[in-house]
Amino acid sequence: MKLNAERIRTLREQRAWSQEHLASVAGLSARTLQRIEAGSAATQETCLALAAALDVPVADLVGGGTDGGATGSPATVDPTAGRVPSWVVMALLLVLLVVWFGYTIGKDAALRDNRADAACTSDAAACEQARDTLNL
Question: What are the respective helix, strand and coil percentages of the chain, to the nearest 5?
């Protein structure tokens, strides 16, 4: 697998690590890391070890192109892109809960009022009794 040698070198130098130190952290030989930074291909296991040691996704190391060492290279993908923050989800759930309770309470009040109106239209005495019962 072809790795971006310049990207690996840049990431290593940003951490102020020597080739020997990165090789040690990744569990590789110093000679293997020298070959990779010189442009040689690497195995899948070597790619995974380097990505883990540098704490970057493997996709950030793959590719033979040069990116000039830019930290915002096109291969870097924001893992939170397209995700809705949890506080937004919680706020929406709260709004839905309030709307549901408001609807339920309003519906019950309307039904109560309709019963009172129906009692008043049929019998005046029942109207007074309904008003007393419903505390209107």
Answer: 65, 0, 35
